[in-house]
Amino acid sequence: MRCPVPLHTYPEPEHGQEESGPQASGITSHVIDVGKLFLIIAFYLIVAGKDVYDIISERYDKRTKRSTLIVDAERFKTYDEVFDRQNLDNIFHLMKRGKIRTVECPISTGKEANVYKTNKVGGGFSAMKVFRTSTATFGSFLEYIDGDRRFQNIDRSRRGIIYTWARKEHLNLRTMFEKGVRVPEPEAIFRNVLVMEYIGYEGKPAPQLKFLDAEKEEWEEMWEIVVETVRKLFVECELVHADLSEYNILYDGAPVFIDVGQSVHIGHPNAKELLRRDLGVISTFFRKKGIEGAGDDAEILIKELASSVEDR
Ligand SMILES: Nc1ncnc2c1ncn2[C@@H]1O[C@H](COP(=O)(O)OP(=O)(O)O)[C@@H](O)[C@H]1O
Ligand SMILES: [Mg+2]
What we know:
Number of domains: 2
Distance between the termini: 47 Å
Oligomer: single chain
Bound molecules: adenosine-5'-diphosphate, magnesium ion
CATH class of the largest domain: Alpha Beta
Strand order of the largest sheet: 1-3-2-4-5-6-8-7
Low-confidence stretches: 1-32, 44-52
Number of helices: 8
C-alpha cells in the first residue's frame, strides 16, 4: 500500500541543538507550506526516489553530528494512534542499530498490532510489527504464555506482557525458520517492535490465502503443503500455531505461515485443543475451495500428532 499523500515533515533546528553533542537524538515534526512541499517532493523524486513515501526516517546532520527522527505527524494522526513517543523511541533505536532505514505506510492495522513496510539499510524491504501497548485485548495473551514452559517468571505488568508477546513471536519465528518452515525470517526485536523478512513481490505485500485466486489443482497443492507444515511445526519445532486461518497464511509462490505470537509449545495444556481448532478452521477453508478430503486429512493428522505426543 502506498501512502496517498506524499507529505514530508522536517525538523526545525531546536534551541541549543549545537550544544547537544554527538549522536544526540530528537523527534520533531513540522508541517511545511505547499510551495516548499512541492520543491521537496520534486527533490525527493529526483534524488531519493521512493523515500518520498516514508513516514518515518532518520536524518544525520554531519555538521552538528546530530541524528533526528523525521516523522509525518499528520499522517500518523490519520492512520495511527499507535505511535506514541515511546514507540518512536523504539523505532529510532532500531534505526540506530541499522535494523531499519525508514518506515513506510502500514500494510495492516489490526486490533493488537500494526504492520509496516520498512526500507532496509542495504536496500530491499522488511516488515515491522508494532504491538499496541494500550491494546484492550492483551489479557488473552496470558492464556498462551502461561503454560508455555519457555516463558516462566515473566513481568506481568501490561507492558511486560506485551513485550513478552513480541519476544514470543520473534522466538517462534526463529525456531520455525531454523527448522525450515516457510515463515518470515526474524530480523530484530526491541520491546514491542518486531522486524522480520518482508513477504511480497516487487514491493507489494503477498496476499492472504483468503484473497487469493487460484485453480483447483493449485489449492490441492497448497493444502498438501499446509498439512505438511502443520506436521513439521508439531514434530520438528514442537509448536502449535494456535491461530491458523486463511488470514494468517500468505501466498508467495507457496504458503507462508505468519502471525505466530500465540503459537505454543506442544507441552502447553491446551496444545491439543489448539491443534484441533487450527486444523478445523483451515480444513473448512480448503473444503470450500473444493478439497473434499480436507476434513478427513485433518482428522487423520490430529490423531497422528496426538498419539505421537502421548508416546513421548
Ligand atoms: N512479514 C510480512 N510480510 C508482508 N506482509 C506481512 C508480514 N507480516 C504481516 N503482514 C501483513 O500484515 C497483516 C497482519 O499481520 P499479522 O501478523 O497477521 O497481525 P495481526 O495480529 O494484526 O493479524 C497480514 O495479514 C499481512 O497482510
Ligand atoms: Mg493475523
